[in-house]
Amino acid sequence: MDADIGFVTQLGMDHQEAVATAADHGYDYVEVMLDGAGARNRLAPRRDELRAALADRGIDCTVHLPFGSIDPGSPFDAVRSGAVAELEAHLDLAADLGAAKATVHPTTDAWGPAHDDETVGDAVVESVRRLDAYAADRGVELVAENIPKGRFDTNRIGELLDRTDVSMCLDTGHARVDGRDDGGIAALIDERADRISHFHLNDVRGPSDEHLPIGAGFVDFARLFRALPDDWTGTLSAEVFTRDAGYLGHSLDRVKESLSAAEADDPHDVNGTGSSGTGGDTEVGE
Asked: Which of 96, 108, 95, 93 is nearest to 34 (CA)?
């Protein structure tokens, strides 16, 4: 297994300091959040500074595209076109930064009672196809993240992968919200490892999206990594809600320990508890 490890920058985190933290602790890259101070209208004038900092410290880059107020799955054509155009502009910035990958949320804020499931799904698929091609033309790999309770959560993201060529970003906390325990997440990895090229790693104590430092919750990351084939190559981002460099350093250590444990252990059946895709949090209370 050949994995590069990085972390997602958080709101309020200075980009120069993030690069320094990555270098000081031995991360391979930073995943720059392109929202807030990282949105293109604010970051673009300073992109040369960030690019220089990355080069000076030998740190690579991926990006997380903005979400929330941007709706690439809107059933309204003008809204959807505007959202895609804004995401394309952020992909231009990603390419300028030398980003290898860009994470996108394949979802919508469409009013559920007014718009049927098929219409919403078709709109998201159309936007993802367009963005995937746009990113590829700029040397950036688009990765679609599973969004809990969204049109393409972990229980339905297979449809998006079957209808597009986009790669997947698997978010462990989001998968827990979907009701998957370690076995359920491992089963998804085993099924879709050929399309999963990126992970958002965050720990939880239950079926929630807490974004705890790695090791602060109950996720068995070694078990998840064992579900990947030996020749898997990809990126692992610690998406931890902290600006404390110490927690980021600790998270890197725990990810490396989990990778080592996964490689050292004998292969075993990943289709254990929760392999159907849902199930309880068997670790809680143990």
From this structure: 93
Top CATH class of 2-264 equals alpha beta
Contact status, residue 150 vs residue 124, Cβ threshold 8 Å:
no
The candidate with the shortest Cα–Cα distance to 182, out of 263, 103, 107, 280, is 280
**Residues 221, 151: Cα–Cα separation, whole Å:** 26
Candidates 239, 150, 162, 149; CA nearest to 195 is: 162
Q: What share of the chain is helix, strand, coil (3-state, %, to 5)?
A: 45, 15, 40
Half-sphere exposure (CA, 13 Å, Cβ side) for 127? 30
Tens digits of per-residue pLDDT, 30-76?
A: 999 999 999 999 999 999 999 999 999 999 999 999 998 899 999 99
Least confident of 4-8, 209-213, 236-240, 275-279: 275-279
Residues 248/25, Cβ–Cβ less than 8 Å: yes
Q: Report CA torsion sign: 207, 156, 167, 108.
A: negative
* CA pair distance 60, 71, nearest whole angstrom: 28
236: number of Cβ within 10 Å: 23
Residue with tokens 């990113």: 135
- Give the tokens for residue 116: 């049927």
pTM of the model: 0.91
- Beta-sheet strands, E only, within 146-252: 167-171, 196-201, 233-238
